[in-house]
Design a protein that fits this description.
A 5-stranded mixed sheet has the order 1-2-5-3-4, with helices on both faces. The chain starts with 15 loop residues before the first helix and ends with a helix. The chain is built from 6 helices and 5 strands; from the N terminus they run ααβαβαββαβα. Helix content is about 30%, strand content about 15%. Helix 3 links the parallel strand 1 and strand 2. It has about 170 residues and is α+β, with helices and mostly antiparallel strands. The longest helix is centred in the middle third of the chain and has 10 residues.
Length: about 170
């Protein structure tokens, strides 16, 4: 028996389908135990709803870095929308992301950057398109991190951290 344990969702910018396609010709049975994508779970853990009436009707989940190591062209399309934008693997492209949103006159749009979300090493920075690079520098935020862009960041609710509660037990 072989187990391939993947952090995050192997079917969201992962190689889950590619790996299954690769092993099938060898006659290996494959099973997937689905989980909740970090693109949804990590913001939720901080009380950030990806959609909320009056703030956002939809959300995009976009890779920050494509297979060719470029910023996804979908970021430019998403910046034109009113949707919440969740960017995975985008910290190395943050300056480009900021420039794209700034070009769409969205300097005051709220941004959250969540590094190592839901772990004891979690670090978070909140700002706007205009201020987020300064926040990242001040808080020493790096990869792995999730970037959430949109009005919903301002709509976050205060939650009791499940992680902190379990540590009290």
């Amino acid at each position: 028996h072989v187990v391939r344990l993947k952090g995050g969702d192997p079917f969201v910018f992962g190689r889950g389908a590619e790996e299954i396609d690769y092993v099938r010709p060898f006659g290996l049975e494959t099973f997937v135990v689905p989980g909740i994508s970090s693109s949804i779970a990590v913001p939720a853990y901080l009380g950030i709803p990806l959609t909320k009436r009056g703030a956002s009707e939809s959300f995009w989940v976009i890779t920050g870095t494509t297979k060719s190591h470029q910023l996804s062209e979908d970021v430019s399309l998403a910046a034109k929308s009113t949707a919440t934008i969740v960017i995975l693997m985008g910290m190395g492209k943050l300056d480009e992301i900021v420039a794209i949103f700034s070009a769409e006159n969205k300097q005051n749009t709220a941004v959250a950057i969540i590094q190592e979300g839901t772990t004891e090493n979690e670090k978070v920075g909140f700002g706007t398109i205009e201020t987020i690079t300064k926040v990242v520098a001040e808080k020493h935020l790096t990869s792995p991190a999730i970037i959430v862009i949109g009005d919903v960041v301002k709509e976050r609710v205060q939650l009791t951290s499940i992680y902190k509660e379990f540590n009290k037990i």
